[in-house]
Amino acid sequence: WGDYHHPALSETEGDYDGRWLYINDRANGRIAMVDLIDFKTKQIIDIPNIGTSHGGCFVTPNSEYVHISSMTPWPYLAPDGYAPPSDYAKYYRGASCWMAIDPTTGRIDMDRSFQIELPPYTQDLADAGKLSSFGFGFINSYNTEMATGGNLEDPLKSLESTAIANDFDFLHVIDWQKAEKLVADGKTEDMNGMKMIRLDVAAAEGVLHFVPEPRNPHGVDVNPTGDYMVVSGKLDPHASVFSIEKIKAAIAAKDYEGTDDFGVPILTMASCLEATV
């Protein structure tokens, strides 16, 4: 069974070209490719290192990649593939997956695809930058508390209450062109058959930055000019509008509030925010 959520059309110069369609399986961490010449499914891939997905599918402006990311973190760092919730921060991780598209057939080329290790937050919807934000990808997140929930005997630790304690979660800002170069330079590890940029490398090399966003967001959308990323939340009544130029400037100036528990730099929210509606 599957739980298909977010179909994405192939693109040329940032506009839909109608050649191929990609869709994620939210329940199982799979991706499918459909050829729109005959509307037949040509590929179904069970992506390593993710068990669920929500941040996909989203296609880059010239169909270089289709992006899909994990939703619930997965214990792929554990020696035998399993770890108890008590080892959540140690062994569980998310993954941002950049699945390379064959420019002739539209099929996913696993040999050119790669992943970026993410902290064990719950990654949500995503979008690809274009024009002024070309080369960047953006992913919402929630449960930066890394809560795992309780049970009937421990009602005060219910996931619903413990996963909303923080006022802010993190917008993930990913420079996929820098990531591409790291892959070309061999700065990856094989993780269950996928080339993966490890989290410490992604943070140190400027591939991954965070921007605080109001708690439990659900949706990040890049506007048609690529200048702004609009974030809305389920538990916050505001829409927050972030500027790519301000984000770039904050990255260049190392305008950080600090780092998270995994060493990822957190950009100063006020320096990146264009408006709140």
Number of strands: 20
Question: What spatial order of strands do you see in the largest sheet?
Answer: 5-6-7-8-13-12
Structural class by SSE content: mainly beta
Low-confidence stretches: none
- The CATH superfamily label reads YVTN repeat-like/Quinoprotein amine dehydrogenase
**What's the total helix number?**
6
State the name of the first-level CATH class.
Answer: Mainly Beta
Beta-strand content: 35-45%
The span between the termini is 39 Å
Shape: globular
Percent of residues in helices:
10-25%
Round the mean pLDDT to the nearest integer and report it.
96
How many whole angstroms does the radius of gyration measure?
18 Å
> What is the level-2 CATH architecture name?
7 Propeller
Q: How many separate domains make up the residues?
A: 1
Protein name: NosZ
Keywords: Copper, Metal-binding
Subcellular location: Cell envelope
GO molecular function, one term: metal ion binding
Give the topology.
Layout lengths: L7 E5 L2 E11 L4 E6 L4 E7 L11 E2 L5 E5 L18 H4 L2 E8 L6 E11 L3 E7 L7 E7 L16 H4 L5 E8 H9 L4 E3 L2 E4 L1 H6 L3 E7 L2 E6 L5 E6 L5 E5 H10 L2 E4 L5 E3 L1 H4 E4 L1
Parallel strand pairs: 8-13
Antiparallel strand pairs: 1-2, 2-3, 3-4, 5-6, 6-7, 7-8, 9-10, 10-11, 11-14, 12-13, 15-16, 16-17, 17-20, 18-19
